[in-house]
Amino acid sequence: MFGQKQPPPPDAVEPQATSAATAAAASPIGAGSAVTALPERTPLAQGNEALVRSDLFRIIRTGVFTSMNASAAVGKTREQMKPGVEQLVLEIAAHERLNVTISEQSQIVSELLNDMFGVGPIEPLLADDSVTDVLVNGPDQVYVERHGRLELTPYKFRDNAHVVSVAQRIAAGVGRRVDESSPMVDARLADGSRVNVILPPLAIRGACIAIRKFSKRNITLHRMAQQGNMSAQMSNVLKLASTCRLNVIVSGGTGSGKTTLLNALSHFIGDRERVITIEDAAELQLQQPHVVSLETRPENAEGLGGVAQRDLVRNALRMRPDRIILGETRGPEAFDVLQAMNTGHDGSMTTIHANTPRDAITRLESMVMMANGNLPLMSIRRQIASAVHLIVQIERMRDGVRRVTRITELVGMEGEVIITQDLFTFRYDASAYNEEVKGVFETAALRPAFSERAAYYGVEEALLEAMRP
Predict the structure, then answer these.
(1) Is there a contact between 348 and 338 (Cβ–Cβ < 8 Å)?
(2) Mind listing the GO molecular function terms for this protein (predicted)?
């Protein structure tokens, strides 16, 4: 996890700090606090609120960061620093005559190490495999998503400055910044988890951090079929589609599992292929040996130096890619992606926000127009029809389960309309309404239009077998 990594470089935390420890000491709570008054005894609650906001913790924290040798902390790991921090906590508690129990000492040491090396009080949530999203709404409210449902946790930050400090440390870890002049940023943790930060004055009730955790488990199409996210037949067809180098668009809403499905599809890319991935914040975890990962860059304080996805797509075309995988298509880069799919980069993939496959096509048309408003709509549709082979629709349903609700094939043009056919659909059973969504995955029992392509790759029989009802 993030907390087990090396501490961030000195200049990545605070301008005057020389280590993660001194950065934490420089925060408003620790700085300038006199270690004099004996705090009133307060029992520590199940969560961390009573701890991180108590006078006991403030006195010990201030003493630890005041006494710590900053130069000795540079370059050390969490485990290497733990014995020294424990010793300092004991010494300060004895010096200030604080009555600290063994349980409280353990909690204090853990919170201090989380401040130095991790993401503060929410570090335990990142270590919890059942948590998929961590949502910080100011210092007093931390939600998590478990099994598709939101839950309020007892974890809290000291104050808004503490939240901002954690957010700045995360952003600095990937060479980005977030402050009042640039109050929004997309970043990532060391384990690949995606982070979005928005600060006041844009966030009225305090700094907000949204963390989309990257799953430690290697999610495959087979596992998704076992979990009920799709049927075994759908899994086989998608596997063959990736093997046959079809151009695939994964469509769905926010948090529906588009990137996870894209990762699962990438497992069937050949080891001899050169793959280039392009993302705003790197999330894709491809297993192939020949992968080049590109990431966009925001503008600096002077409004210069920004590199958009469209710039990276254009550059990727000059890097001799076999496949281009775009984390998300959301703007003018759609035009360049279609050009790439139409010019020999078969097997390219991307995701798009849309509620149905037909909506995904409409959104593609709109985004291409953003890039080149002079193109006739008929020309854009012809490009889409010739470039895209499959649209895979995924949805997070009301029971929290992500399901592939439709696999749609684009088969060509008829007049001015793009013709599609559904190979698979999820049929919801309206008669069995309860907490769990009931339904069946149905196959259309059609011969896919890409069966000739499957024959070229020697998998036509396997494709026809997968399509049988």
Answers:
(1) no
(2) ATP hydrolysis activity
User: Distance between CA atoms of 213 and 220, rounded to whole angstroms?
Assistant: 17
Chain segment 182-213, per-residue pLDDT in tens:
899 888 888 878 899 999 989 998 999 999 98
pLDDT value of residue 44: 36
Percent of the chain with pLDDT over 90: 46
445 vs 258, higher pLDDT: 258
* Under 8 Å between Cβ of 234 and 407: yes
User: Are residues 97 and 38 in contact, defined by beta-carbon separation less than 8 angstroms?
Assistant: yes
Residue 10 sits at φ, ψ, to 5 deg, of -55, -45
* Residues 6 or more apart in contact with residue 463 via CB below 8 angstroms: 237, 240, 448, 451, 454
Residue 262 and residue 347 in contact, taking contact as beta carbons nearer than 8 Å: no
* Of 151 and 174, more confident: 151
What the block records as the tokens of 331 is: 């703007």
- Give the separation between CA 245 and CA 269, rounded to whole angstroms: 8
DSSP type of residue 141? -
CB 341 within 8 A of CB 382: no
Which of 177, 175, 166, 182 minimizes the C-alpha distance to 134? Answer: 166
Domains in the chain, please, with CATH? 44-116 (no CATH), 118-215 (3.30.450.370), 221-467 (3.40.50.300)
> What integer best gives the mean pLDDT of the chain?
83
Structure tokens given for 354: 């849309």
What SS3 state is found at 275? strand
Indicate the pLDDT class of residue 48, thresholds 50, 70 and 90: low
pLDDT in tens, 127-141: 888 899 999 999 999
CA angle 252, 253, 255 (to 5 degrees): 110
pTM: predicted TM-score of the whole model, two decimal places = 0.77
Strand 275-279 to strand 184-188: parallel, antiparallel, or no bridges (unpaired)?
unpaired
> CB neighbours (10 Å) of residue 288?
15
Residue 28: in which H helix or E strand, if any? Answer: none
